[in-house]
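Shipment paperwork, digital attachment
Item: protein structure file
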Amino acid sequence: MSHALFIDVEVDSAVAQDRELAAKLAEVCPVDIFAQADDGALRVVEENLDECVLCELCINAAPPGTVKVIKLYSGETLPAGAASG
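Attachment content:
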């Protein structure tokens, strides 16, 4: 469970297990929300979630619909029109 107050992220499991996509997400995030685990899989750095600047670089770096940024304070999900769940 996330301890973030403002932001959460959801990443499709196929993307999270893809070493190349995990590396790309870790590279594009300006506030280091994403990192790679020892096995190359994606790891969400929970303590950095609330640092998100809503730049959508992670959303644009991954296949459509596979990364969602959830504004916990409003219920809005990025990209716009994406349903969380």
